[in-house]
Amino acid sequence: MEVRKPHIKSIPYGEFTDNESLEKIAKELNEGGVNVIVGSLDQAVNWGRSNSLWSLTFATSCCGIEFMAVGCARYDFARFGFEVTRNSPRQADLIMCAGTITNKMAPVMRRLYDEMADPKYVIAVGGCAISGGPFKSSYHVVRGIEEIVPVDVFIPGCPPRPEAILYGMMQLQRKVKVEKFFGGANRKEHKPIIVTDVPEDFNVKEA
């Protein structure tokens, strides 16, 4: 079948205030047997990025065990694209910090963060990573990793349940999906997400 090429006229940017012309072109192509999906490139890129977030796990205490539980068969975070964990910051999209960070660890964590490629994210899991936890008055403990690196999602708890960790990771997915990937404007305004409570209707079905 021969596809009739639509005539595309030049429209000044100021006058192009709606998608009527674009929808008309897409309709003509669909009638000619050509499948067309209309959407912004930002949406396509962010959809792919949000469903393939690779994490660098920086676990130092009991919250790391809960993160391991999220990866097991009962919760199975592979369904959401989180299954790939990296040992190299150059291959990771986010740092999953779970546990107490001491003053000696702080420069190492900052170095790992600096070695990651943009765009990069940080999730703070548990009371120790968020505020120092029960050790916050100690002379050798950092009172929250936000003093070292910018944090995108806070997941409180001591330790937080696997459902809370999974919910926090899904909130990061939502944040990535609405970012402006092209133009470099996505990291100018820093708005962290705080997981205060897991919704009652958030039920994780066993795999």
Describe the structure.
The chain is of the alpha/beta class and 207 residues long. It has a domain at 53-176: Rossmann fold, CATH 3.40.50. It has 6 helices and 6 strands; from the N terminus they run H-H-E-H-E-E-H-E-H-E-H-E. Strands 2-1-3-4-5-6 form a 6-stranded parallel β-sheet. The radius of gyration is 22 Å and the shape is elongated. One of its GO terms (cellular component) is respiratory chain complex I. Its cofactor is [4Fe-4S] cluster. It catalyses: a quinone + NADH + 5 H(+)(in) = a quinol + NAD(+) + 4 H(+)(out). It is found in: Cell membrane.
What are the defining features of this structure?
207 residues, alpha/beta, 6-stranded parallel β-sheet, 31% helix
What is the average per-residue confidence, as pLDDT, rounded to a whole number? Answer: 76
CATH architecture of one domain: 3-Layer(aba) Sandwich
**In one word, what is the shape?**
elongated
Terminal Cα span = 46 Å
Q: Largest sheet at a glance? A: 6 strands, parallel
**Low-pLDDT regions:** none
Rg from Cα: 22 Å
Amount of helix: 25-40%
CATH class of one domain: Alpha Beta
**SSE pattern, N- to C-terminal:** HHEHEEHEHEHE
CATH names the topology of one domain as: Rossmann fold
> Helix segment count?
6
Question: Based on DSSP secondary structure assignment, what is the total number of beta strands?
Answer: 6
- Strand content range: 5-15%
Biggest sheet: strand arrangement = 2-1-3-4-5-6
Class inferred from helices and paired strands: alpha/beta
